[in-house]
Design brief:
The complex is a heterodimer of chains A (264) and B (156).
Chain A (H helix, E strand, L loop, with lengths): L4 E4 L3 H10 L3 E4 L5 H6 L7 E4 L9 E4 L2 E5 L4 H6 L1 H6 L1 H8 L4 H6 L2 H7 L6 H8 L2 E4 L3 E3 H4 E3 L2 E2 L7 E7 L3 E8 L6 E10 L2 E7 L6 E2 L1 H9 L3 H5 L16 H19 L1
Chain B lengths: L2 E7 L2 E7 L5 H8 L18 E4 L2 E4 L12 E3 L12 H8 L9 H14 L5 H7 L11 H15 L1
Parallel strand pairs in B: 1-5
Antiparallel strand pairs in B: 1-2, 3-4, 3-5
Helix pairs in contact in B: 2-5
The chains are: A alpha+beta (264), B alpha+beta (156).
Bound molecules: flavin-adenine dinucleotide and FE2/S2 (inorganic) cluster (2 copies).
Flavin-adenine dinucleotide (FAD) binds next to strand 2, helix 2 and helix 7 of chain A.
């Protein structure tokens, strides 16, 4: 690991001013992606700005039909939250299947979505539920937040502060996990969301995406059969040692069917 | 540049001068000589480095030592009661829950966190909990048996 300066942020504003003034100063949240990146010498920050002291960014609140999760909320806290389980059980289920218990004890929702790993689970949950990302500057709808592989709408000095999830009528997430890391080789989140049916796919492509044909089919007939014959083209999908693009395309339909069946 | 980091490790106040990049596991092993906590990978996947920080299990290879400033840390060296093994350690011993033993400290620290929240875990719950602990020797079966027996011993 290259050396760096360490600064524990006392406030979001302080963290934003440090990373705003220096493009090579970087935030660390749970560190579950960033510290391995540092260890591999894939990053050489001047300063690491630690967000772990920002207690007001951690926590879950429910107001009416909206569940709001602070950026520093650990995956384990979402997975165990009675409020999330009551309002959006699919989201608690998604969080409870990220990585392993020790990753869930540290990793945060803010870090996960800011990182936008193509195989991360939360992007499917945010897009599948039509969530809104709040930052220190503005609100961004999930559909506009995730831009491309490891790329989001965040500006250099922008910090995710929370994510708000409108409660769906019903929803479920199914993933085909990588057997070693549990990242999604392909994961599909389906929902009868506040603004209609949503089908969001992670792991298969460079970035989370929606499948309009499946959304239309499920809008008129909410059943696994409705998506059974809808296939997504393998063009542009990810290909690696774990799965070919064709295999991932096939998994989208299989996981979508299973997710609809799971949602009931 | 070094920073002075202070924390409680296995009930004792300790401090060390470390670089910002020093990992918690390096501070434990290299500065404090607590070599029971192992390093088995550089991808945060193997779990041989699991310790408890403020009562929760985490991977000490994926936390900076400075981030543990003021924390209460427990390592495998801190679980036995003098010469008497902790019931979970005893259960690994009795159930042949290890072969080379490299993964064992992490397995035990992880399983203690499981049992804290779930005193009577099912076999499936034990297997799922061990997602972040790799063993290259045993095939896991005797580890699962050990944790089941250790949890039972801790209940009684
Ligand atoms: C073994 C292993 C298995 C895993 N398995 C899975 C899995 O199955 N599914 C899954 O989805 N993920 C998985 N992960 C990743 C895990 O979910 C991480 O928690 C996540 O990728 C990053 O969150 P973090 O809080 O650790 O962020 P960090 O690693 O601290 O930061 C990641 C990036 O986000 C930036 N950042 C952090 N917080 C903010 C913020 N509030 N605003 C703006 N930028 C911010 C940082 O600067 C950094 O660039 C796994 C990780 C490991 C090590
Ligand atoms: S050394 Fe492998 S997870 Fe920490
Ligand atoms: S006993 Fe050898 S790695 Fe587990």
């Amino acid at each position: 690991m290259y050396n760096f300066e360490y600064k524990k942020a006392g406030s979001v504003a302080e963290a934003a001013s440090i990373i705003g003034a220096d493009a090579d100063a970087k935030l660390v949240a749970g560190g579950m992606t960033y510290i391995p990146t540092l260890k591999q010498r894939l990053a050489a920050p001047t300063t690491v700005v630690d967000m772990n002291g920002l207690g007001d960014l951690a926590g879950i609140s429910v107001a009416g039909d909206t569940v709001t999760i602070g950026a520093m909320t650990r995956h384990a806290a979402v997975a165990c939250s009675a409020d999330v389980a009551a309002a959006i059980p699919a989201l608690a289920d998604l969080a409870g299947h990220i990585g392993d218990p020790q990753v869930r004890n540290r990793g945060t929702i803010g870090g996960s979505i800011a990182n936008n790993d193509p195989a991360a689970d939360y992007p499917a949950g945010l897009v599948g539920l039509g969530a809104t990302v709040k930052t220190n500057r503005r609100e961004v709808g999930a559909d506009d937040f995730f831009i491309d592989m490891f790329e989001t709408a965040l500006e250099q000095d922008e910090i995710v502060t929370s994510v708000s999830f409108p409660k769906p009528v019903k929803a479920a997430y199914m993933k085909f996990p990588n057997p070693a890391s549990r990242y999604a080789i392909t994961g599909v989140f389906v929902a009868q969301a506040h603004d209609g049916v949503r089908v969001a796919v992670t792991g298969a492509g460079p970035c989370v995406f929606r499948v309009a044909a499946m959304e239309a089919a499920l809008s008129s007939n909410w059943s696994a059969d409705a998506v059974a014959d809808i296939s997504v083209s393998a063009d542009g999908l990810n290909e690696d040692i774990h799965a070919s693009a064709e295999y991932r395309a096939h998994l989208i339909t299989v996981m979508a069917k299973r997710a609809v069946a799971k949602a009931g | 540049m070094t920073l002075t980091v202070s924390m409680t490790v296995n009930g004792e106040s300790v401090s060390a001068d470390v670089e910002p990049r020093t990992l918690l596991v390096q501070m434990l092993r290299e500065h404090l000589g607590l070599t029971g906590t192992h390093v088995g990978c550089d991808t945060s996947q193997c779990g041989t480095c699991v310790v408890h920080v403020n009562g929760e299990s985490l991977k000490s290879c994926t936390m900076l030592a400075v981030q543990a400033e003021g924390a209460d840390v427990t390592t495998i060296e801190g679980v036995a009661d003098g010469e008497t093994l902790h019931p979970m350690q005893q259960a690994f011993h009795e159930n042949h829950g290890l072969q080379c033993g490299f993964c064992t400290p992490g397995m035990i620290m992880s399983s203690l966190d499981l049992v804290k929240n779930n005193p009577d875990p099912s076999e499936r719950e034990i297997r799922e909990w061990l997602e972040g602990n790799l063993c290259r020797c045993t095939g896991y079966h005797n580890i699962v048996k050990s944790i089941d027996a250790g949890a039972k011993a801790m209940r009684s």
